[in-house]
Design goal:
By secondary structure, the protein is an alpha/beta fold. It has 17 helices and 16 strands. The protein starts with a strand and ends in a 7-residue tail after the last helix. Bound molecules: ligand ARJ.
């Protein structure tokens, strides 16, 4: 059967994990139930490039239940949960993913998912879309559209669209309110802390934690770290974001200053070279450094290596760098997303909404892709609200509805004080 994974013997554990995720993803299960008889994705060949986790497995099963044929690869060399990949492979999903792939293997896996000549693509970080645009332009004509999961991926696609380089329409799943306002904030907040704890088992209370970036992800991390008793320092380049951090009660300063103060550093900026040699040089002995952004360029580990005399893996995902200045700096998860490398990624409850958007984006592109321009489209406001409504329903929460009079009032410009 098509695919390559680490070890099929891991399948039983993977299956249990997926079951656990399904029990915590009621919106996805409702969508699966709703669309498994009408099969709106029948005839669709979806190539997916997204972290192979128990939550992604729930998305894959739902796409298949709705009629799609899928071929999958992971979107990060260190984020694949090998037991989940084994379970999916055993179920007959063509999947090329294992933990610890080299860069060459990473792109080889993507290439394998393209052999089916997809008519839809599903990305996290846009590496699949880039591969099609750079190496397989011939496939673009057969592709109705694609979706993108994360902030940095969406930024790049918008830049491509602005330059007229995009070869087929894309849906920005990240930009749905039911994605970024929950996944990026509460998901990243909890799972990054989880990753740091699994890799280090340190006490948070009383530590100084430097959070680079106060976008949605950084905000979530800062909030959760402070809830555990850490003193949070935020670094930013955007004045309004820095102001928000100040008014949320955090200290704000440049990284040059924060470098000497932090016990734990985490980058959540989507930008490269956020922590470089001059910062590592200033860090306290024992400082812990990690990244939760999609790409692994936020920490300049090349520069760190040049300053390192010896390296030792102290625990899983925790590498001691002994520096020429005599101090040690500990890097978690090789500077890749600490929440997915050292922990299991965001909790299922949050991915429930992100992946509901992914699923609906696939249905939308199937039905409308041929009429769309080569642009980046947002999820519709109606779909966003519908997913939130469904989520609330599964939580047993009901809310008020506007009356006719109130609806008229909303847009009435004759009624003032
Ligand atoms: C799959 C996950 C998980 C998880 O939605 C999140 C995002 O934008 C990413 C950037 O790469 C990671 C993705 N994410 C977080 N947690 N994807 N399963 N459990």
């Amino acid at each position: 059967m098509a695919g390559k994974i680490k070890d099929i013997k891991l399948a039983p554990t993977g299956k249990l994990k997926i079951e656990w995720a399904e029990a915590h993803m009621p919106v996805m299960m409702a969508l699966r139930e709703k669309y498994s008889s009408s099969k709106p994705l029948k005839g669709m060949r979806i190539s997916g490039c997204l972290h192979v986790t128990k939550e992604t497995a729930v998305l894959i099963r739902t796409l298949v239940a709705a009629g799609a044929e899928v071929a999958w690869s992971g979107c990060n060399p260190l984020s694949t949960q090998d037991d989940v990949a084994a379970a999916l492979y055993e179920e007959g999903i063509p999947i090329w993913a294992w933990h610890g792939l080299t860069t060459a293997e990473f792109y080889w896996c993507i290439e394998q998912t393209l052999l089916q000549k997809p008519n839809l693509t599903l990305d996290d970080g846009a590496d699949l879309v880039f591969t099609i645009h750079n190496q397989h332009q011939e496939l673009a004509a057969g592709i109705l559209g694609g979706s993108e999961e994360t902030t940095t991926g969406v930024h790049r696609l918008r830049a491509m669209a602005d330059d007229g380089k995009l070869l087929y329409p894309m849906v920005a799943v990240n930009d749905a309110e039911t994605k970024w306002d929950f996944d990026n904030v509460y998901g990243t907040g909890q799972s990054s802390i989880d990753g740091i704890l699994r890799a280090t088992s340190i006490l948070y209370a009383g530590k100084t934690m430097v959070v680079a970036g106060y976008g949605h992800c950084g905000k979530g991390v800062a909030k959760r770290a402070s809830g555990m008793g850490a003193n949070v320092i935020v670094t930013e380049v955007k004045p309004t974001a820095a102001l928000k951090a100040m008014l949320d009660g955090f200290r704000v300063m440049p990284m040059d200053q924060a470098a000497g103060l932090g016990d734990i550093f985490i980058t959540a900026t989507g930008m490269k070279d956020v922590i470089v040699s001059r910062h590592f040089e200033k860090m306290k002995d024992g400082a812990i450094v990690c990244n939760t952004g999609h790409y692994d360029c936020e920490l300049n580990l090349k520069e760190l290596s040049a300053m390192t005399t010896t390296k030792k893996e102290i625990r899983a995902n925790c590498m001691q760098h002994k520096l020429k200045n005599g101090r040690s700096v500990f890097v978690l998860g090789e500077g890749r997303l600490v929440n997915l490398v050292a922990a299991e990624g965001h909790p299922s409850e949050v991915m429930d909404m992100s992946f509901a958007n992914q699923f609906m984006a696939m249905v939308f592109l199937t039905q409308n892709g041929s009429k769309l321009e080569k642009k980046v489209y947002d999820i519709s406001a109606e779909q966003d609200q519908e997913i939130a409504r469904l989520k609330l329903k599964t939580m047993g929460v009901s809310i008020d509805t506007l009356t006719e009079v109130q609806i008229r009032y909303k847009t009435a410009y004759s009624e003032g004080t």
